[in-house]
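Minutes, project check-in

Agenda point 3 was the complex the collaborators sent over. CS summarized: two entities, 481 residues total, and the question is how they sit relative to each other. Sequences were read into the notes so everyone works from the same version.
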Amino acid sequence: MVGGLDLFLDYLAKYSPIVVFIILAAGFGIVTLVLSYLVQPKYPEDEKLSVYECGSEPFSDSRMPFPVRYYVIAMLFVIFDIEVIFLYPWAVTFDQLGVIGLIEMMIFIGLFVVAYVYAWRKGALEWD
Amino acid sequence: MFDTSIKLALTLSQIGAVMGVVLLTVAVLTLLERKVLSWMQDRMGPMEVGPYGVLQPVADGLKLFFKEDIIPAGANKIMFSLAPILVLVPALIGFAVIPFGPNWTIDVMGVEFKPFVISDINIGVLYILAFASIGAYGVILGGWASNSKYSLLGGLRSAAQLISYELNVGLAIVGVLLLAGSLSLVEITEAQAGGFWNWFAFDPVPFPQFIAFVIFLIASVAETNRLPFDLPEAESELVAGFFTEYSGMRFAFFFMAEYANMILVSCMSTVLFFGGWHAPLPFLQAPGMFAWVTGIFWFTAKVYFFLFLFFWIRATLPRLRYDQLMRFGWKVLLPIALGNIVVTSVLAYIFPN
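CS then shared the predicted structure for the full assembly.
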């Protein structure tokens, strides 16, 4: 498994800068927030801390129920996004796959369109 | 051990430079946006701070830094504090895979080093898309944790909008991947060398990706919550959407993330469709050692053109209604993007490069 180790070291070399970047970016955020926390004035009052509601007293729970539409859109997104991601490896290896790959993907996109038309006809894409 | 420390020092300075340039550009953009909008509306814009108002970003930054950071009553403190960082970090680290200049590998004391890209990973496009989606978590988390109705509605709208248009971004990129045969942004740039007729937006053989570019542009305006798609923060109905309750530095982070995302999608448009750092005509590119000078110049020029386009669109178009926005994304952009993939793949098979 010498090849495996080399591959691992190669990935380590390529992805370690990204890990460093994530740490630095998060560090920038946290340090700035902490520094700002140290220098800012703090005069909390009840009126100031109450949530904004056009100047009137907030009424009822603000974590209110929301339309089920959002949930339907989220489900459709999960389904369609997986199908989109499936196109990526095919697109990258397009040259090597030849006509078989093209035909197979046309069938797949056909299925995609069937699901899409079904969702459309069922009214899942309507927003009213 | 010596090699590792050299490598670390080089990487750190590179990341520092990229982060510095991005944050500086964010500061410049906050002023530039107001100035451009002012010019388009025949007024002056900020003029008070410094000559011609150029120090306005500094004043804004200092003001927000010293402002009281209010956590509203009933808010979920941890998530409320976490959300701005969760939005800002993905917006910044996307730049790790963007090639700003020629794909050179130089030798610094025995260590191989690519000066113009932080990390050339072979899944660059996926990496950016993945982290762009994480930004959506920060938005919905911030909206939910604020314990405010406006924030919750803004967060929900934003989440639905981001995922709907992400689909179109994903589909629009497939055409480019078909032509480039790689997910690495460096290799996608290299595939467009030569002149503007080789850029994927215009390349006549097998099929110009201009339609895909337009879809990508519209979808990225929606992804960055910019007008005319800024429904999540529509002032006239939701006060400020998901960051209604934010103040001080946390508010600044949401603001910075929005501008950093704008820069990121402009960089992506440049790299994917407009040849990255390549000059539009071959003779406009300096030869040999000095290619990086013109490379960085053209890259910056293209990115600023797209940023200007963002402001221009904002000044021109009115805001959509939410049902129009969702209908447009799902029923107009998605079929066109899918059709583009079918046409591109068939033509790419018939006329291989």
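Noted in discussion: Chain B touches chain A through 80 residues (CB under 8 Å).
Follow-up: revisit at the next meeting once the mutant set is ready.
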